[in-house]
Write a structure and sequence with these properties.
The protein is α/β, with parallel strands linked by helices and 328 residues long. It folds into two domains: 214 residues, Rossmann fold (3-Layer(aba) Sandwich); 65 residues, no CATH class. It is built from twelve helices and twelve strands. The radius of gyration is 24 Å and the shape is globular. The two termini are 31 Å apart.
């Protein structure tokens, strides 16, 4: 990395800056019917898909940010343009004061990326060989490698996995090993795309606990996507909602609940054994409604889940044409 990039990194509070970014894909349409095959040859059709649409946001150093949205909203596309895996069609991106398009090689020294459905581990080799390969290829100093290996081995509980072939690992074990591997070079920014996907309860708790500790202890900037809103709320302090390739909400989870109406739910049990769920916001109105009911024997109160509220919100967005079936 150049001296200028080092200076910039030390004098800005922004880890990620995205300004007016648009990403357009072109899909060639195929028709396998008799006439369609001929049309494919003579006059092929293509469909233009806008995955990111004038996207803008910033993430400060040391932030732990959740990045959420419905399927096809543009979450994975965002992760890929931030890491330099995809080039934006237009707009400006700065990651750790570097351009992912022009300085990807330098940027990767400070960036860690994990996609839940992919692995960097060598399938037919022990996990430790993948780690040692990264040390050599990435030119990680001996002291940094040993220090980080000791830390991730203890905190992620992978000591018994280091000599195990990657193909023999469970999903939870593989995710922990992949996370450990991406931390060996002490990244300043981590991009996680569905890191808890498919994990059992214990593996998920271990993953979330480690990420929170990493952010708190080292000040590592983390951006994470997930379809599980409970996981995101437990991990992150700020949430960005994306739909149709644009940011539709930026704030903390308490504010998001306020936007969703902060609906509460009463479960009413009756003497005949039946039950009824009632969503409400005004407690006084609920009490008046309950007073008019006969045979009430028990009432329990809960809050509707954040995930449930977002499902309803996403449905409204689709009805209003805000979200569509775009690429992820």
């Amino acid at each position: 990395m150049s001296g200028k990039a080092q200076t910039d990194m030390s004098h800005t509070d922004s880890a990620v800056s995205v300004s007016g970014v648009t990403k357009v894909f072109t899909q060639w349409q195929r028709d396998n019917t008799g006439r369609g095959l001929l049309r494919n040859l003579l006059k092929p059709e293509k469909r233009v898909i806008t995955a990111l649409d004038d996207l803008s946001f910033q993430v400060g150093k040391g932030e732990f940010v959740a990045y959420a949205g419905p399927n096809g909203a543009g979450k994975s596309t965002t992760m890929k343009v931030l890491s330099g895996m995809l080039l934006p069609s237009s707009g400006e991106i700065s990651v750790l004061s570097m351009s992912p398009q022009k300085q990807r090689h330098a940027l990767m020294k400070y960036l860690g990326v994990l996609f839940g459905n992919r692995t960097e581990l060598w399938w037919d080799h022990p996990v430790i060989q993948s780690f040692e390969w990264k040390k050599v290829v990435w030119d990680i100093p001996d002291d940094m490698y040993k220090r980080n290996l000791d830390v991730v081995t203890e905190l992620l509980d992978i000591g018994d996995l280091l000599k195990t072939f990657a193909r023999e690992l469970s999903l939870g074990q593989r995710m922990r090993a992949d996370l450990a591997m991406l931390l060996l070079h002490s990244p300043m920014l981590i991009l996680l795309d569905e890191p808890t996907l498919g994990l059992d309860v214990m593996a998920k708790r271990q993953m979330i606990g480690f990420l929170k500790e990493l952010n708190k202890r080292d000040g590592t900037t983390i951006i994470v996507t997930s379809h599980d809103m409970d996981d995101l709320e437990e991990m992150a302090r700020r949430i960005l909602l994306i739909s149709g390739g644009r940011i539709t909400f930026d704030g903390d989870f308490a504010s998001l609940r306020g936007e969703l109406g902060n609906t509460k739910r009463a479960l009413v049990s009756f003497s005949d054994g039946s039950r009824r769920e009632i969503d409400y916001q005004d407690t006084r109105k609920l009490l008046r409604e309950l007073a008019d009911m006969e045979g009430v024997v028990d009432i329990s109160f809960t809050q509707t889940s954040l995930e449930e509220g977002l499902v309803n919100l996403f449905a409204k967005w689709r009805q209003n044409g805000i979200a569509d079936d775009q690429l992820t």
